[in-house]
Write a sequence for this structure.
């Protein structure tokens, strides 16, 4: 549905998107992730023909972004980062106006707008003036606009930006639902959302693609040690000795908690699930336990691992410079 090859964008000589290549297959929901300034919006604007590329090519919904930009726009529902709405219009008027702009006939537009408002739960606000809507409802108007002409492909630029946790949860459900009928490329920085909705993620950092894989594979590739927490009321030293002997347990530390309880922290081999063995040992030793919990690595861990922290980078550069000055 989308094929991107060596796409590049330079702004006044500065490279914002640096020769990126990736694909999105029909029916996929792909998350486009990256820190602020990574080049997400620039890429999405090029793919929707709102910005011309400096170099490279892309085909979107079967059309070339240079040769068939009109067709691309017709086949793609695009929700830009800051949805440009007309604040003085009523929701229904605005959406009908947009549908007509997209070439729908009046009667067809009327029906399509009702349907889009229904999908985006806008029916109760359809006669509201846009300026009076909350941020969450404004985002839904933007989404209804993007899907009013039933495009095969939706390109959404941070659709949950600025929403509260409740609205984010609703928007996540909506996007999942839309994924049943549309191919979706969605940029966001809410990683838990991506983990739940996207089959694949493409990670971009400083204009370059860092990874393209399923969230599960990115987490697996991380190979961070697993972590298990036990809270028990037993003599720490002998417990530690027994726990560390278990297959897959690499290291055990403990700390005192309230009322004679101790918290044991186990670092484990990520490829071995030691929870059952730990539990049998607790049982056979007759230890008094009130918690056994494991913490799995998340997409956030993988993201942090893949994407350089620009603050830290800047700091280490400063430190490097300082040591250079001292040694010279
Ligand atoms: N119109 C523009 N003119 C000059 N530089 C821009 C323009 N738009 C974006 N940039 C720069 O390009 C880089 C990528 O921006 P953007 O694509 O908006 O990133 P993201 O959406 O990932 O936050 C940033 O460094 C930004 O400052
Ligand atoms: Mg952006």
């Amino acid at each position: 549905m989308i094929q991107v090859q060596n796409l590049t964008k330079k702004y006044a000589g500065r490279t914002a998107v640096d020769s990126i290549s990736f694909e999105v297959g029909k029916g996929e929901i792909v998350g486009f992730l990256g820190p602020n300034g990574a080049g997400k919006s620039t890429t999405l604007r090029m793919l929707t023909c709102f910005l011309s590329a400096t170099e490279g090519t892309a085909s979107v919904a079967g059309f070339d972004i240079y040769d068939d930009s009109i067709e691309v726009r017709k086949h793609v529902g695009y929700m830009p980062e800051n949805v440009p709405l007309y604040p003085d219009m009523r929701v229904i008027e605005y959406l009908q106006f947009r549908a007509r702009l997209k070439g729908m006939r009046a009667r067809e537009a009327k029906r399509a707008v009702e349907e889009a408002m229904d999908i985006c739960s806008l029916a109760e606000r359809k006669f509201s003036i846009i300026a009076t809507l909350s941020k969450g409802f404004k985002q839904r108007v933007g989404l209804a606009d993007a899907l009013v002409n039933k495009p095969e492909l939706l390109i959404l630029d941070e659709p949950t930006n600025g929403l509260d946790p409740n609205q984010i949860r609703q928007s996540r459900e909506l996007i999942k639902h839309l994924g049943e009928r549309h191919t979706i490329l969605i940029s966001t920085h809410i990683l838990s959302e991506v983990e739940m909705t996207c089959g694949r993620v493409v990670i971009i950092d400083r204009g370059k693609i860092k990874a393209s894989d399923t969230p599960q594979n990115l987490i697996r590739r991380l190979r961070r040690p697993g972590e298990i927490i036990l809270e028990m009321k037993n003599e720490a030293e002998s417990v530690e000795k027994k726990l560390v002997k278990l297959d897959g347990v690499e290291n055990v530390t403990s700390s005192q908690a309230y009322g004679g309880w101790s918290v044991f922290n186990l670092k484990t081999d990520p490829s071995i699930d030691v929870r059952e063995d730990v539990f049998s040992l607790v049982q056979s030793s007759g230890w008094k336990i009130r918690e056994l919990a494991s913490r799995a690595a998340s997409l956030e861990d993988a993201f942090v691992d893949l994407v350089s922290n620009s603050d830290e980078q800047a700091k280490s550069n400063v430190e490097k410079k300082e040591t250079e000055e001292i040694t010279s």
